[in-house]
Amino acid sequence: MALITQYLTIHPLNRDYFLMVNSLSGAVDIIDNDDKSNIELLTHGRDPKDINNQDLIATLRERGYLFENAQEEFATLQKIKEISENLIDKSENEISFVICPTLACNLRCTYCFEPEESRRDTKVMTTAQVENIFQIIDQIITERKPCHSEISLFGGEPLLPSTYAINKEIFRLASLRKMSIDIQTNGTHISDYIDLIKEYQGIIDIALQITLDGVRDVHDRRRFRANKSGTFEKICEGIDALLEAGVHVYVRVNLDRGNIERLHEFIGFIVAKGWNKKENFYCDVAPVSDNHAKGAVPDFMPENEIVRRIGELFPDYSEDGNFFRLRLFRVLHHVNEVLKLNSKVDKILFRFHYCEANIMQFYVFAPDGYIYPCPESTGNQKCRIGSFDPHLEFYPEQIRKWQGRTVLRIPKCRKCKVALFCGGGCAMAAINANNNIDDPVCNNAEEVLAEYIQSIRQKIIAKYGSVTSSASDVF
Ligand code: SF4
Ligand code: SF4
Fold first, then answer.
1. Domain for residue 362, yes or no?
2. 418 and 305: one domain?
3. Does residue 278 share a domain with residue 155?
4. Which residue has the higher pLDDT, 298 or 150?
């Protein structure tokens, strides 16, 4: 029996017109009330032959909204999955070797995912461990031949005075291999590291992601030291020094109810500092996530609500030419690609998986001698995918769990209309909340899509011209 794809969502644009989004084929079309009524009839089992607008039927078939039967839809899904996997193999085959020199951290951020014991654990990786890691990196690169690979420093806090010597060794070994280094830091010890960074930055690419959650009082209320002192001033000095030295700086603003209303002020601060004029400065806003599913994030705000509020606070927002970006909103970023509202998009990858951890693009090395699949899983015994100290060993069964985690494997996601926008949610959250990597914690992907389309509907109409009365391929 003919059927309308389960991957269809319909969103009102105004009183007379709707946006139809097909996350299976990537088609996006504007329809009117008559089209919508006909599509609803088809959804409820009406035979396509009995629909009075056969042009609409032809367009629906052509653009992957209407299938002869469930088998035809499933075959299309499998074909798209193969194409996506091929694309990932060929052009998206990147590996990030994440090294955590320590799990200790000097801050006590209100929304931190790390357990208190880890943050207090002062253990630092040894030189022998780091040498071992680089041999393993060489081996993995030889076997997997990625088109790009990099070293990423993560923690705890990777840039502490106690980790200086081991970081120096990591820089040396990375530079011998001409590998770039990406550092995710709280930015409180840049002054201790600036000379080391300058020494290597002409030899390899170095980028730092530094979190600043708002203007001074907002930031210091959320990201403070163990002795409760604020960090804003010190971080800003560090950013100034890095920008001056030509190093790439990505400021990350973690958003929730505690700071979103004052995002405007922070943007004013960035402009007053002149950071936005620097070519090596980027600013990414991101939702504070509850990947550890403890429900303990104090001002947690669901992603769809953040998206709606950003739309209200910044009605003229556009990814193009704006210095703050939304690329860290996983669902939203993908929706933007499908809607082609970002001119930098040249190809769309359907999201059968949620994140890099599900396609083994992360190897996370921790001071405990184990290898983990995702940076937030370090220290969690259930997540280990191997060990590197004293010798290399991978755990194939664990790797299969992480690597094969697609929306086709997860029963709940198989029935979800926005599965190919979402990708199945965070695997860590599934493990933490449900003790089962295939029992996902939904991240409001459907609401994110709906709220976002509402917030940009004027832009959609402006970009794609006046709406037409049939399901035409205006996108
Ligand atoms: S995690 Fe939830 S929203 Fe995401 S694909 Fe699965 S069922 Fe859909
Ligand atoms: S599994 Fe979750 S926490 Fe880990 S990298 Fe993916 S999205 Fe992040």
1. no
2. no
3. yes
4. 150
Residue to mutate (ligand 2; options 288, 426, 442; most atoms within 8 A of CB): 426
Residue 96, helix vs strand vs coil = strand
Q: Does 204 reside within a domain?
A: yes
Question: Does 149 fall in a domain?
Answer: yes
The ligand 2 atom at the shortest distance from the C-alpha of residue 376 is 3
How many domains does one find in the chain? 2
Are 286 and 416 found together in one domain? no
Question: Could you read off the pLDDT of 358-414 as tens digits, one per residue?
Answer: 999 999 999 999 999 999 999 899 999 999 999 999 999 999 999 989 999 999 999
pLDDT above 50 (res 179): yes
Picking from 317, 338, 368, the residue at the C-terminal end of a domain is 317
Ligand 1 atom 5, closest CA? 419
Same domain, yes or no: 52 and 141: no
- Terminal Cα-to-Cα distance of the chain (whole angstroms): 29
Here the tokens at position 402 are 């992480």
Domain that holds residue 32: 3-85+406-464
CB-count burial class (<10 Å; 0-12, 13-18, 19+) for 472: middle
Mean pLDDT, residues 74-80: 90
pLDDT grade for 340, boundaries at 50, 70 and 90: low
* Residue 474: predicted pLDDT: 37
The kind and range of the H/E element at 255 are strand 248-255
Give a yes or no: residue 393 inside a domain.
no
* Whether residue 59 has pLDDT greater than 70: yes
C-alpha 395 to ligand 1 mean position (Å):
27
Indicate if the pLDDT at residue 33 is higher than 70. Answer: yes
335 C-alpha vs ligand 1 centroid, how far in Å?
A: 15
Q: Are residues 28 and 119 in the same domain?
A: no
Q: Which of 14, 10, 15, 11 is nearest to 42 (CA)?
A: 10
Which of 261, 282, 317 terminates a domain? The answer is 317
Q: Is the pLDDT of residue 91 over 70?
A: no
* Structure confidence at residue 471 (pLDDT): 38
Mean pLDDT of the chain: 90
Task: Give the residue, out of 154, 330, 355, with the most ligand 2 atoms within 8 A of its beta carbon, to mutate for a pocket test.
Answer: 355
- Residue among 349, 347, 303, 341 at smallest CA distance from 322: 341
456 CB near ligand 1 (under 6 Å):
no
Q: Which ligand is nearest to the CA of 424?
A: 1
Q: Determine the Cα–Cα distance for residues 454 and 50; give it in Å rounded to an integer.
A: 33
78 and 195 belong to one structural domain: no
